[in-house]
Amino acid sequence: MENEKLVLQALEKDARLSAAQIADMTGVPAAEVQKIIKKAEKEGVIVKYKTVINWSKVGEETVWALVEVKVVPQRDVGFGAIAERIYRFPQAKSVFLASGTYDLAILTSGKTMQEIALFVSEKLAPMETVQGTITHFILKKYKEDGVILEDEGEPRRLGLVA
Question: Domains of the chain: which residue ranges?
């Protein structure tokens, strides 16, 4: 189990690592690394390999928003059924059950603010179990999936104005 954890942690940091590289990093034999990876893929432990791209650096602007949704849980299925309906929308990039005033948090994206507004007003808000939504537009991404997108350098203090 410990070897599995070491292999998965290495892959989580960099999915491009080869079995030989992971073996060098962890001390787990390369053949065992390959077996661990294949088993984890088969069992759904490894769900997807992902590349984080800073699209703003290639001129591809995307609008991101975090939408909080207040829902009425359904008898016998709780929040699961409404979450499933929501995560089936292609606009819903991530869906989370959350504590606090709102029940679900949805990360969504679109080409424009209007596109996101239409998703919220035409797809989410009309659902019979939805009581309300709040949309927070993401103004700038500093860090995503543990990766700093734009290093701002050393923190600077502002000079006093006389």
Answer: 2-42, 57-140
Considering only the C-alpha atoms of the chain, give the largest distance between any 2 of them, rounded to a whole number of Å: 67
Q: 2-42 adopts what CATH topology?
A: Arc Repressor Mutant, subunit A (1.10.10)
Can you tell me the distance from the alpha carbon of 96 to that of 129, in angstroms, rounded to the nearest whole number? 16
Produce one character per residue of 63-79: b if its CB has 16 or more CB atoms within 10 Å, e if not. Answer: bbbebbbebeeeeeeeb
Q: By C-alpha distance, which of 75, 72, 90, 85 is closest to 132?
A: 72
Output the pTM of the full model.
Answer: 0.77
| Interatomic CA distance for residues 71 and 101, integer angstroms | 10
Q: For the structural domain made of 57-140, what CATH number should be given?
A: 3.30.70.920
Helix, strand, coil percentages in the chain from 3-state DSSP, rounded to 5: 35, 25, 40
pLDDT in tens, the chain (162 residues): 799 999 999 998 899 999 999 999 999 999 999 999 999 999 999 999 988 887 778 888 899 999 999 999 888 888 999 999 999 999 999 999 999 999 999 999 999 999 999 999 999 999 999 999 999 999 988 888 888 887 665 555 555 665
